[in-house]
Amino acid sequence: MTSTRQVLISAKEAAAILTEDPRSVQRKAKAGVIPFVAKLPGAKGAYIFDMEEIQAIVRERRAEAAAKRAA
């Protein structure tokens, strides 16, 4: 049986991977543009992200950029 562990990261870590400002990542998560695993309670509760999902967004963006360059 294969077990895969989900690696959870903060908005700050997700922002570093996406090369965006952490506040932008939080706004996009709140708007449903970037998927998140959980939001901690409270008005200022932190968003928690799955690293694999964030890396998938980066791969998708790179592929789109490459396609635009090739066109």
Mean pLDDT: 93
- Structural class category: alpha+beta
Mind telling me the C-alpha Rg? 14 Å
- Total tally of structural domains: 1
Q: What percentage of amino acids are in beta strands?
A: 5-15%
Query: Oligomeric state of the chains?
Result: single chain
Largest sheet: 3 strands, antiparallel
User: What is the CATH-assigned architecture?
Assistant: Orthogonal Bundle
**Annotation, overall tally of beta strands:** 3
Q: What is the name of the CATH topology?
A: Arc Repressor Mutant, subunit A
Shape: globular
Report the uncertain regions: none
Strands in their spatial order, largest beta sheet? 1-3-2
Name the helix and strand elements from N-terminus to C-terminus, one letter apiece: EHHEEH
Number of helices: 3
Termini gap: 44 Å
Q: What CATH first level would be assigned?
A: Mainly Alpha
Q: Considering DSSP H and I runs of 4 or more, what fraction of the residues is helical?
A: 40-55%
Descriptive account of the structure:
The chain is globular and about 45 Å long. It has a 3-stranded antiparallel β-sheet with strand order 1-3-2. The chain has one domain (8-70): Arc Repressor Mutant, subunit A, CATH 1.10.10. The protein has 71 residues and is an alpha+beta fold. It has helices spanning 11-18, 22-31, 51-70, and strands spanning 8-10, 38-39, 47-50.
List keywords for this structure.
71 residues, alpha+beta, Arc Repressor Mutant, subunit A, three-stranded antiparallel beta sheet, 3 helices
Outline of this structure?
The protein has helices at 11-18, 22-31, 51-70; strands at 8-10, 38-39, 47-50. With 71 residues, it is an alpha+beta fold.
